[in-house]
Amino acid sequence: MCATCGCGHPHEEITLEQKVLARNDHLAAHNRDWFASRSLRVINLMSSPGSGKTTLLERTLRTFPGPAAVIEGDQETALDADRIRATGVPAVQVNTGAGCHLDAAMVRDAVERLDPVPGSWLFVENVGNLVCPALFDLGEAARVVVVSVTEGTDKPLKYPAMFAAADLVVVNKLDLLPYVDFDLDLCRKYLGPREVLALSATRGDGVDAWLDWLLTK
Length: 217
Ligand SMILES: Nc1nc2c(ncn2[C@@H]2O[C@H](COP(=O)(O)OP(=O)(O)OP(=O)(O)O)[C@@H](O)[C@H]2O)c(=O)[nH]1
Ligand SMILES: [Mg+2]
Hints:
217 residues; binds guanosine-5'-triphosphate; alpha/beta; binds magnesium ion; Rossmann fold
């Protein structure tokens, strides 16, 4: 019951959120088993809108040596899936409508439609959002958070849940560093022991280290 007015709403809302997350965790555990049975290496890419997730995938997939497939999450449009297919790699677009993140059920449905070759790297580009996607396990093997130098140095401090969940943080748009007020050393300090790769998805510097990291997955 609500301590302020006795209406009961806050208590119900908290219970509902816990149930939604518990159900998602259960489905994500099934996804993880299913991915393992097909030797799929699933990478969940998350960031604010426009940090360069799709651009990084486009560059990656043009030279990636292994089999790959992509699930694209956006509220609307199939623009990102179209960009991925233009590289020759299969992609499925998931539109979440009013939703602000992908969940385990959406990914399971999409991967069944995509039917990737066993042993593939399966890239999941989450909906652009530094908050909600951090809460939803998809059954992935690794979480990559992309932050670009145009977003400001303070993002790891302001959105700690997202960065705490990252196996790797990619700092993108390195080519713009001379023109913006972004302190890469301070950003690394804020990120603590987390692995960080700085790169430019458009110009290509730093991308080899990213490819090497992916091949360890
Ligand atoms: N200068 C520069 N621009 C970049 C770089 N990477 C991406 N961009 C630009 O940033 C803009 C957004 O890139 P996207 O790859 O669409 O970003 P996204 O994270 O996929 O965006 P959403 O899917 O909408 O969340 C585009 O204009 C890209 O060309 C980079 O390394 N350097
Ligand atoms: Mg995108």
